[in-house]
Amino acid sequence: MHTNSANRSEIDEQPAAHLAPLSPEATLALSRVSTATITTQLMSRGLRNTYLEGLEFSNPARQRLLGEAFTMRCIPAREDIDVPSIFQDYDHPQRIGVESVEPGQVLVIDARGKKRAASIGHILATRLKMRGASGIVSDGSFRDMVGFEELDLPTFSAGASPTTNLAQHHVVDFQIPIACAEVAVYPGDIMVGDRDGVVCIPRHLAESVARDALEQEELEEFILSKVEEGSPLRGTYPPNEELLKTYSELLPN
Ligand SMILES: O=C([O-])CC(=O)C(=O)O
Ligand SMILES: [Mg+2]
Known about the structure:
The chain starts with a helix and ends with a helix. Strands 1, 2, 3, 4, 6, 8, 9, 12 and 13 form a nine-stranded mixed beta sheet that branches. A two-stranded parallel ribbon has the order 5-7. Helix 2 (about 25-30) crosses helix 7 and helix 3 (about 35-45) crosses helix 7. The chain has helices spanning about 5-15, 25-30, 35-45, 95-100, 120-130, 145-150, 205-230, 240-250; strands at about 50, 55, 65-75, 105-110, 120, 135-140, 140, 155, 170-175, 180, 185, 190-195, 195-200. The protein has two domains: about 5-205, 3-Layer(bba) Sandwich (Glucose Oxidase, domain 1); about 210-250. The protein is elongated. By secondary structure, it is α/β, with parallel strands linked by helices. Bound molecules: oxaloacetate ion and magnesium ion. Oxaloacetate ion binds near residues 122, 143, 144, 164 and 165. Its cofactor is a divalent metal cation; Mg(2+). Homotrimer. This is Putative 4-hydroxy-4-methyl-2-oxoglutarate aldolase. GO terms for molecular function: 4-hydroxy-4-methyl-2-oxoglutarate aldolase activity; metal ion binding; oxaloacetate decarboxylase activity. Belongs to the class II aldolase/RraA-like family.
């Protein structure tokens, strides 16, 4: 297939780039709703592959993740290039990448799902926290996991590995579309994490997903209260007309 540089850059830039910041209402809603609700909302918009399978949070006290994606892509390391001395270079792409993450962003690392060597360690993670990052998501592993377990930052990975990233990974680029745990993540997409895992909301859908997810959860809270009172599923979940009417009468105007 013929691809010229003009349509390449179009592909690279769409669809998340140059979008306005999330509204305060959407931010508040997405900080409250569950990833389960978000995936339902995304599925009702035709998106089924938004959950980054197989990632676990490192710090049980910081499971809740929310922020826009700052993407980082790794290719396989090569022995003649990825030698320990390259970390002497402050301009190594991994260092530059970490020092480019802005407050509120989540570093999302495409480590090709490879866990033999860590994709990032505790010192770099601490630097990200100090820069005001909202979290770290990697489909590879972390090293210094004891540090991550204590770090006051939501971080999700596919596991732990003591080996430094150079042994398996070569950071080659950032702020480009990546694959993370088999999900397409574009720079600026909204990452949400909780006890169930991490989901990626395409940026252009984030406002409407946030609004509808909050509405869904308010209704589900009402449904749950009915189930807890002993109501059967029929007529309750999903709610029939009559129950919906009762619910709408309870809503503030
Ligand atoms: O080699 C690395 O991934 C860096 C590291 O250990 C750290 O940041 O603490
Ligand atoms: Mg370390």
